[in-house]
């Protein structure tokens, strides 16, 4: 404006300055809310700022952190993916995305994201540790599914039992393993065991279609037609 003053531009500049001051105020409030663990308020304030400052990686990472704290990991993923693109060599974002996918039970996507982290830094300790865990689990699940395709149900059961030992901390993997073991037992004509295990799965996930189908097959083997 100093180099080229005009009324129109001055008005525009004043508007931008006012907006800038407002965004800085919102930023301070968002940080304060985050520090006070009021994550819902922090998200609302960050939404307003990011509507204007679309390309700010740090703000996206902060909002992702709030989503994680609020128990909304899926929403955190989109912010972290944006942050990974916006900031060079953002190993931390790839690590967090991989961990979220892993906790959600999506081991394949988790493996893909942690590999991106290691491409940027092959000595990244957290990523390498996670990579080893996810790779081992992924291999066991792939192997178990291959056994199922080949009709080798006893081998598949044994492999899925290994999956539960490999990852005892994240419940989704145990539930999935039990669901697949029930499928194998049902296919292997071991009706009583299949019914018991499918019932366990259905107590956790009442609308699990696979477990319902496999338990139905097991009931048929036992001539329990009403069930």
From TrEMBL:
Gene3D superfamilies: Tetratricopeptide repeat domain. Residues 8-20 have a biased composition (Basic and acidic residues). TPR repeats lie at residues 91-124. InterPro entries: DnaJ_C3_Co-chaperones, TPR-like_helical_dom_sf, TPR_rpt. GO terms for cellular component: endoplasmic reticulum. Residues 1-20 are annotated as: Disordered. GO terms for biological process: protein folding in endoplasmic reticulum. PANTHER family: DNAJ HOMOLOG SUBFAMILY C MEMBER 3 (PTHR44140:SF3), LD25575P (PTHR44140). This is DNJC3 protein. It comes from Piprites chloris. The gene is Dnajc3.
């Amino acid at each position: 404006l100093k180099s080229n003053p005009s009324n129109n531009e001055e008005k525009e500049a004043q508007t931008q300055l006012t907006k800038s001051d407002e965004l800085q105020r919102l930023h301070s409030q968002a940080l304060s809310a985050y520090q006070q663990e009021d994550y819902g308020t922090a998200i609302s304030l960050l939404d307003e700022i990011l509507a204007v400052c679309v390309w700010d990686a740090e703000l996206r990472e902060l909002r992702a952190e709030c989503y994680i704290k609020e128990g909304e990991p899926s929403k955190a993923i989109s912010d972290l993916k944006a942050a990974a693109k916006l900031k060079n060599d953002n190993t931390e974002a790839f690590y967090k995305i991989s961990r979220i996918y892993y906790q959600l039970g999506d081991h394949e996507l988790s493996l893909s994201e942690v590999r991106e982290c290691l491409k940027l830094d092959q000595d990244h300790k957290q990523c390498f540790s996670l990579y080893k865990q996810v790779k081992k689990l992924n291999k066991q699940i792939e192997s178990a599914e291959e056994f199922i395709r080949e009709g080798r149900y006893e081998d598949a059961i044994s492999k899925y039992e290994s999956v539960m030992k490999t990852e005892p901390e994240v419940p989704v993997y145990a539930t999935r393993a039990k669901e697949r073991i029930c499928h194998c037992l049902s296919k292997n004509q071991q009706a009583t065991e299949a019914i018991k295990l499918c019932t366990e799965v259905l107590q956790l996930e009442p609308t699990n279609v696979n477990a319902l189908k496999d338990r139905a097959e097991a009931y048929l083997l036992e001539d329990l037609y009403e069930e």
